[in-house]
Amino acid sequence: MIQIAPSILAADFLHLEKDVEIVNRYADLFHLDIMDGSFVPNISFGFPVVEAIARKACKPLDVHLMIVNPEKYVERFAQAGARMISFHYEAAREGSSALIEKIQGMGVKAGIVINPDCPVQDIFPFLHQVDFVLLMSVFAGFGGQKFIPASLDRIRTVRAELDRMGRSEIPIEVDGGIGPQNAGEVVGAGAEILVAGSAVFKADDPGAVIARMRA
Ligand code: DX5
Ligand code: ZN
Q1: How many domains does the chain have?
Q2: Domain CATH code at residue 121
Q3: What spacing in Å lies between the alpha carbon of 73 and ligand 2's midpoint?
Q4: Residue 16 burial (CB < 10 Å; 0-12/13-18/19+)?
């Protein structure tokens, strides 16, 4: 089943409730981008915003951590209402295995993320553990970037490896530059969860955009 995860980074923060209702009504997950100005050269939002969204959300919260030392904060994000938490392999490295266990130990789904310049093979050692994989199709840090076409091959490679391991049920989430124009090829390559920020929230009719992506 294809899931659409609008990225709140592109929402209207003065009228956040309006955009939360759009996700509740038309989409499947809330994608929440947490940036610390250190792992990525941008700062987004933190616990108060996640907690506020959690109070109004009827769909699960998918927290994408773009922060250094993710192990220090996963507990707080779980308490804030996250049902899925992903961290960058580049930020955790050999600590990835323990971090996946820590996230899962709190009853939260654990995902591992990599940027477009990180070989997908680097995360193969953790594929037997994760609940989902998040492949960046732009460099983490900013919304509104252009989809990198080489991401399609990376999706295919990870999909093939998951299938080979007998873990076909593990979804691949893809994040960055996705909209109705390329949702079909991203799904065709083997992804199930599509993150979309600008395409959804900068549109006149976000519900129609989500419907087109699903189709
Ligand atoms: C980038 C974020 C994405 C981003 C997606 O670092 O992880 O979730 O907000 O935004 P669009 O869909 O505008 O590329
Ligand atoms: Zn994201």
Answers
A1: 1
A2: 3.20.20.70
A3: 17
A4: middle
